[in-house]
TrEMBL record:
InterPro entries in UniProt: CoA-bd, NAD(P)-bd_dom_sf
Taxonomy, superkingdom: Bacteria
Name the record gives this protein: CoA-binding protein
CoA-binding domain location: 19-113
Matching Gene3D superfamilies: NAD(P)-binding Rossmann-like Domain
């Protein structure tokens, strides 16, 4: 789905900030121990620069960054406030179902991840839903940590600076 054909409207910046402020625990679904993966980079940031209790979910891993990895959301020792998803598009409906079954409050689909049916169903079930945004970048942007991501401008853009 291209940006031009998108119809779902996500939460505003103040709404995303409020979501991040009331979040205490984050489950990363699709977490990876591969240092080249975005989920590993996000996990590293959240563990070092956020107040969140971070849990990892991946049925094929046992430990990431010294933390246990759980096979599913149902196996976590807590109900996470926010589920951060690094999974393929076709897996998202299943992740939504798991999120609803465990009683999490928010579903966050990472950059490049967009599924309007999942978003609508999640919102109808009472979830806060964010799509196509990076939890790490949003947290850093709102909490002054963009320098940790290599951004000091306060502006997130893929365009090169002139000069």
């Amino acid at each position: 789905m291209t940006a031009a054909t998108r119809t779902w409207i996500g939460p505003s910046a103040p709404e995303r900030l409020a979501l991040l402020r009331r979040t205490r625990s984050v489950a990363i679904v699709g977490a990876s121990a591969n240092t080249a993966r975005a989920s590993f980079f996000v996990a590293t940031y959240l563990l070092s620069s956020s107040p969140y209790d971070v849990y990892f979910v991946n049925p094929r891993a046992s430990e990431i960054l010294g933390h246990p990895v759980y096979p599913s959301l149902a196996d976590l020792p807590v109900v996470p406030d926010l589920v951060d998803v690094f999974r393929r598009h076709d897996d998202l409906p299943g992740v939504l179902e798991e999120t609803l079954e465990v009683g999490a409050k928010a579903l966050w689909l990472q950059l490049g991840s967009w599924h309007e049916d999942v978003a609508r169903r999640g919102q109808e079930a009472g979830l806060d839903v964010v799509m196509d945004r990076c939890l790490k970048i949003e947290h850093a942007r709102f909490h002054g940590g963009l320098h940790l991501a290599g951004f000091d401008t306060g502006v997130i853009s893929s365009r090169r600076a002139p000069g």
